[in-house]
Amino acid sequence: MTVLVGVAVLVCLAYLVFTTAVYVTLTVIGAVESLVRKQESRTDDFATLGVSRFTIPVSIVVPAYNEERVIAATTRSMLELDYPEHEVIVVNDGSSDGTLAALIDAFGLQPYEAFVRHVFPHSDVRAMYRSPEHPNLVVVDKVNGGKADALNAALNVARYRYVCGVDADTWFDSKALLKGMRLAVQDPARVIGVTSHMTTARKPEVAMSADPGRRRIDLHPLMAYQHLDFLRAFFNNRTAWSRGNYMLCSPGAFAIWRRDVLEEVGGYSRTFTCEDIEITFRIHEKYLREGRDYRILSLTDNVATTEGPDTVRKLVSQRERWQRVIDETVWHYRRMWFNRRYKSVGLVGTPFYLLTEVLAPAFEVLGLLALAGAIALGLFQPLTFVVMVAAIAFTNAALTASAILFEDLQSRSYRVRDLVVLLLYTPLDVVVYRPILLWARLKGSLGFLRGDKAWHKFERNERAPA
Amino acid sequence: MDDLVLRVGLVVLATAATAWVVLSLLVVVGRLRYERIHRQADERPLKPREAERLVRRAAGYPRTEWGRWRRVSALQRLERARHPAVPRLLRRVLRDPDPKIAAAAIRTLGDVGDEWAVELLVDALRDGDGSRSRVASELERLVPTPGPRLVPLLRDRDAIVRFWGATLLRPYPDRGESTLIELTWDSNPEVRAAAVETLGTRHGPAVETALSARLDDSEWFVRVHAARAVAHVVGAEAAPSITRLLSDQRWWVRTAAKDALRGMGADAVPSLLAMLTHEDLFARNGAAEVLQDVGFVDFLALDNPQSPLLERIYAAGGERYRDAAIARLEDGHLHDVEEARVA
Asked: What is the ipTM of this complex?
């Protein structure tokens, strides 16, 4: 027994050292990329891009299911984006609440019929609406078919060369599209996909209402830890993936794609729990298999704030789904694992996902059990356990602090005092927030093994009546 | 094992805690420093030694990406101070093989905006230094200064240069018209499309003839531009020939035709009604859609709901089309149409 526990402890320690080394490496690469992007942003000319007819038009596609509390306000924020030419296509995906009524009231929508292409498959459209006040707004009311289905319906209506998939609960910086599209404008032949950094809050509309430099971070502990989680994901991971050409997740809250690329791969898949990671994997797989030159980028600009769950129950529901999606996608594309044909995606990206996302819950549980066993069997003293936890906590805190540093260097968005509070939160992340995530990821992994494909949408946070 | 793990753990803890403290201090101190510097104007004159250092940096050929960005920063600082070495330095940076660095030079040239800067931008457009769309954005920002330098581009041997020349002449209605008309017959379809698009903002019989000929171009995207341009230049008289494009084999041509016909309003109605019995389903759908969008269907539904013509339009549009029209009527959306009918 003692030998078994000892081996388990060693395996888990080896895993911990390996993943920490990977994260430190990614953070260093991410730091280089962040600094380069920072330099690059000094030469951005949004005033010129914002009025230039050479800025490529974009169709924003918004799937909405039971979003009556937020849909009018978020749609308005999309219509008001600072961009020379864009349209907003909202798809009411068979909501059972008043989502459609809220849109009709807010924008004075009128029913009409448009004969659009049927390139992407989706369930039946019931009606289409447009707004006399906003000619660039189209609302599609369709039978419920899931998020991917709604996105496909919107793609059929979209008129422009680039489409930007967004979530209906997301509020945007007024320059979000300009920031996202600036590199695509420079190299539209190669840049086929772009995403950018976003954050989370209980009430994104409040977070985004202040000017950059004065924005507040939602410092409710659960939200602050989610904010830190997003920062880590974007600044320590995705910027590095982007630099290494293996950006494997364009999140659904802000994902710009060249429309013809989506056509080539047949649109969003309706057979996965969630569409965003899968479509990114699918595009990489196709383009690398065919030996094509392309870029999918993750930029460092803060473009949006999305509504995050404000209770542990909602958070677990959301993260459980995310884990299932990762498991489904990584498993489905297992032919890319360690496959030289898929270059950095096959040799770095997919193995990274496999080791740090798919297998992580198993290793974490094994580690906890092994440590408990090691203490019970006298292999470790409790002091050793405490020191190990503290070492992990501060390693994690240092990585998170670096993400805060890069984010602030890039955007200078938030108040200094909020940044200080965030920094003070970081060492406790391991003992306060990570156990919740571990629970959610375990549930997600079990859900994947059971074949669960339900969405488990979390309820929207409470708001005062408008 | 316990002792070893404890020792390693303590070392990691000490290292990580130190890193955390340092990084946290960097966040706070860096931000406070930024806010202090940000309040100071960056337009102060350069001291001679500082200028010398910046010129040296801007003139170098750094190997790393970071070094190249430092070069750009130096150049921008020199430009803000209007240093005399800037034109010479910008010419070199513009030829940097890294497109991002070249883009920085292009932006700086746009900021300068002087005659020499325009000349450099036009040269960059011709020689392909940096992103041509980025150069074009800056040249358009500097209207009217680049005008005289753009006309020779129309005669360039390189089709991409002719394309950009034709595209950029749009804000100059008095320049290059005859050459643009010639370019509507260019061997390169991109050039033909650009010439058509620019001529779409002009007027005159020669322009009308040239544009109308392109409605039958062999390339679909030229027909797209031609549909829009002809609608703008020729107006309602062109409705029959544009309506014909509703049955084009390419979706985007049909969409452009619908847009063009919508813009004509009621003037397009006679041609559209003639399409309701067209053998092509898309043509019938398209005609019904435009009739809906110009308000003709709502007008007819209010004025004569039993009209056989309305039934024909509904038949061309389909069930959902009819439902939408009835819903508009029932929901009282048609105040404007009602007022127009009464008037």
From this structure: 0.90
